[in-house]
Amino acid sequence: MSMVSQLLEATIQAGTPILYATLGEIVAERSGVLNLGVEGMMIVGALAGFAVSYTTGNPWLGVFAAGLAGMLLASVHGTVCLVFQGNQVVSGLALTIFGVGLANFLGAPLVGVTTAGFSNAPIPILESIPVLGRALFSHDVLVYISFALPLLLWLFLERTSLGLSLRSAGQNPEASAAVGLNPVAMRWLGTLTGGFLAGVGGAYLSLAATHMWTNSMTAGRGWIAVALVIFAFWRPGRAIFGAYLFGAAMSLQLRLQAMGANVPSSFLHMLPYALTVLVLVVSGVRGRGRAAPAALGVNIEPSE
Amino acid sequence: MLGFKPVRRRDPLPWGSFLVFAGALALCLAISELLLVLQGKPLFQGLYLLWDGGFAHGYSLEDTVIKAMPIYLCALGVAVSFRMQIWNIGAEGQFAMGAIGATWAALNFSGLPAWMLLPLMLCGAALTGGLWALFPALLRVRYGVNEIIVTLMGNYIAILVLDYLVYGPWKDPVSFGFPMTPEFTDAAIIGLLPGTRIHWGIAICLGVSFLLWVFLRRTRLGYELKASGEGVKPALYAHMPYAGLVMLVMTLCGVLAGWAGAMEASATVNRLQPSIMVGYGYTAVVVAWLARLRISSIAFYSFLLAGLRVGVENLQLELQVPAAFGGILEGSLLLTVLAGQFFEKYKLVPARGGKNA
Lengths: 304, 357
Fold this sequence. Notes:
A: mainly alpha, B: 2 strands, ABC_transp_permease (chain A)
């Protein structure tokens, strides 16, 4: 097996949890809700997925539970911001503080055990394509789902009336309400979908990438996902590039460490975080902040 | 909303912010109690230990004051930047950088007397903490880069820099492999107030409060800063140097958080080691918002959340509750206060005639 193929395979595996979370946050932000709680939702998902898979022995139940747990946390953000008009930035931050605390608190007894989780399910024929076959088609099922997801979300956002309604809640909720749509309901839909996908992204870490639960195992990936939404200009398709760019940085960092590179490990660990800043600067220089939904982060005041 | 309809209050709810905070605190303690009971801990013992550990007697109050000081310094900076709608979440990293700057001075000029070395350490901390905060400010004003994420990434990076130093070049050769620098010389340690365990850092806190008050109330720049709290557009209409203010505020925040880090390294652990990073920078965000970004309220909320932190340590010790419990308390308190603020502006009246918007 070639080195390139191995590195590509590791890149996709490391990028997958970030891809799920980024796609989820794209849907939330397109509906106008800025949810900075992604890190919290991811880690709660990682714990719920692991705990359910560990007790039932069924990884699919685990993934579903992870999605629900992410959604439950997202509904706290929805309640604070969509019902009680709380500040979206601060609520998201609080959600992360709360979620990380909750997961580390409830997860304490599970540190040190392992569960079967997902194993690789190579796709027959496709797997034998030289170089790319191994890199793309020798993964677990969650990776294959993540290949299809950007297309599905794109179709939903751009080609369905529900997607149009959701986007209008993020662009101009007053106009949206004026033509008889329900922007608040659309924001709930975006927030909950975002929470579900962030939870699944977290579960990927505890059920596929590793088969265990460790404290603070998301290690900032949720924040990277928030940054990638800006890099992706709020488009599901572009999220793929961003997520795999980070996957590459993370697997390269591990590879260099394993090879005993003459660089202190602290500096290697910095790579993804420094890359996030770089990616934001590049997006900033190209001036695409304007691609943001016009009403992103602005609450819809209750009508009287 | 479930048969009720929000109606905007004509006058703000009297005692609104107090009522909201009291309600939120009660709700958050109820959630915590529920979690403890579900974990099989005895009823109400957890809440008692929380109170007992943080506030009940002189020894615990001293602990609370010691923890309140770094939170207070970080929260002042965070609040001033939040007022400008600059979402600086980087106090944690600026704190780490400040501790690094102070340690650099303490290790390299250990021969100096205290009256020269301590100010030098504070200068070092101001420089490293301030520059660390200036970088995201520059990116923000120059390229419009989102400061929330850059300051957050800065936190992760700063902590890794700290790790690198204490595992590598600054490691104490006789530490038996523990990641820590050599212990500071006496001249580099901020001393204690006679008869207490509280260190003279409290004088730094008081000095900073006074200077900040003078700056915000008595100088033109401070006035502009307060005025630009309304956001970027009003500031620009009034021809204020918005970009300059952003850089000033962020640097100020970095200097204050840096001093908090220097205080922790010098007075509390007497050396640089990874355990000084306990999340004061994130608690400062909670404090700043609970205080409604009012400088005058920050001391009270710093004290309160420091007490909760000490209380959680007590819980850890007595009931083997994980330290992460503190995050649950802080996060749920902030979330409930955010939701509760709704009732200061609106009241719910029963909706007449079926469904409502």
